[in-house]
Amino acid sequence: MFAQCAQWYAGQLLEQSTITLDATDPGLMFGATTFSTLRVYDRRLDAPLTQWAAHCDRLRQTREQLGLPQPDWVAVETGARLLADRYPVLRVTLFADGREWVMGRQLPDQLDRKQAQGIVAWLAREPQYRRAIATHKTGNYFPCWLALRAAQTQAIDLGTGPEAATEAILIDQNDRWLETSTGNLWGLRDGVWYTPPLGDCLPGIARSHLIRQLQRAGRPVVVDRPWTADWVDQLEAIAYSNSAVEVVPIHTLLDRGDHRRFEIAPVVDLQSLYHA
User: Fold this and answer.
1) Phi, psi of 148 (to 5 degrees)
2) What was the pLDDT predicted at 132?
3) Orientation angle between helical segments 205-216 and 52-65, nearest 10 degrees
4) For a surface tag, which of 14, 126, 145, 218 has the fewest beta carbons within 10 Å of its beta carbon?
5) Nearest CA to 244 among 32, 35, 26, 70?
6) How many C-beta atoms surround the C-beta of residue 112 within 10 A?
7) What pLDDT digit, counting tens, does each position of 194-230 carry?
8) 3-state class (DSSP) for residue 120
9) What count of other Cβ atoms lies within 10 Å of the Cβ of residue 256?
10) Does the global pTM surpass 0.85?
């Protein structure tokens, strides 16, 4: 039986909510870790939508490109399988020396409502919100955390009471939209789905899955068009994706005291394709 808070660290199942790190651990001092967050479907790592192999492959490639040693992949999978039976979301973290840490959590609060009704997002314009090593998931997510924290202080009343922003949209020095604080962006224009090009944003597992699903359905999808400030003004609908939330519409964007509304209905099509 698992304790209330079970996790896996360095080859051991820990029935507790804490781990012990050396005070000089690079992961603690510099955020020197790599990680991936996945949603477990049917309590199985081998369920197709869990995409366990894709998450491991991305972690493996990140380790290679950053010159970090590979972990004991058998230990990683052992811990993940144990926790997949209990938690719907797993975060697999690898320390600089290859130690593995697998922890579980529940799905985000009110996810069904957010998927159906959409959310408010805030445009994070300040340079401190730009992510370091943007093409990899490393432990240095401080800019994203700051952007999300700032977004949550912004709210708008659309007639049903104040609604706070729950995502931040990150941009580059040229005001091109890149991604959100926790996922990849999607936009609909003239019946075509777009997602920002890679290079300054993360190659998300959910992003790759949606691109494949759109292509298999014979639907046009554009992945190499920069999201410039004037171009995004023409978008009819926007959403964000990640492996935990799948696809969530953004119904309102807050920016410098102003706001813009987007359609929600078109995003249902993208949500359906995720499970097709």
Assistant:
1) -65, -40
2) 85
3) 120
4) 218
5) 35
6) 8
7) 999 999 999 999 999 999 999 999 999 999 999 999 9
8) strand
9) 7
10) yes
